Amino acid sequence: MNEPEKAWHGVLVATALPLREGKVDFDGYAEHVGWLAANGCDDGVTPNGSLGEYQTLSAQERAQVVTTAVAAAPPGFSVMPGVAAYGADEARRWAEQAAEAGAPAVMLLPPNTYRADRRAVVAHYREVAKVGVPIVAYNNPFDTKVDLVPELLAEIHGEGLIVGVKEFSGDVRRIYQVHELAPDLEVLCGSDDLALELAIAGAVGWISGYPTLSHTPASSCGKPLPAAISAPRCRSTGRCIRCCAGTPKPSSSRRSS
After folding, report:
1. Which of 16, 97, 123, 212 is deepest in the core (most CB within 10 A)?
2. Residue 232 has pLDDT above 50, yes or no
3. Residue 188 belongs to domain with CATH number
4. 113-140: pLDDT as tens digits
5. Do the domain assignments include residue 134?
6. Is residue 5 part of a domain?
């Protein structure tokens, strides 16, 4: 598989996993991944989404979901699995499995057994980062009860532990704060209903459930979203909206005004 340089860019579909009589239909899943790639969602997929059905799978099934997605992915199509687990050791093992399967990046929640404090969160990402595969953090304070606030993300990124964050807090101001505190940390939209706002603010990607749920062809809802996310344009000037604003990362004074 010939992945793009930054596998977390563009629209990555949070895929559903087909089940038949309580068992995973791996052939059906491979067909679904191939269908998405052929029908307009040609950036990639995110299997084993961190709040999906992976928690009910056996270890063998969870691993096979990843290998199935990688095998079904055409050239240039990213597979960025979720590697969430109760603790760092288990999450590291899933990151190792994803890397061995050929995944170019992984998505990682903070520890979710308890309300981890700052030290526990940093230690969690340190351990998984030892695998060497690029990590996109996943901030979902609603379900994990751990909020990866911009200051904490900047600390984790400053140690070189993450390359991006899937932002699901629902607060569109977060992306501006992240850009100020960690200019090189890339933000992905994690909420389908905030894709436009975060794209305008400079998100480089969108992990979306919409294409896998819609009954319309993926090409009608997935394009030209990658271009819109990477460089939203001003209707009057045709220039990148962020350039029209004078800076790609708005300052706090501009935001407060």
Report:
1. 97
2. no
3. 3.20.20.70
4. 788 999 999 999 999 999 999 999 999 9
5. yes
6. no
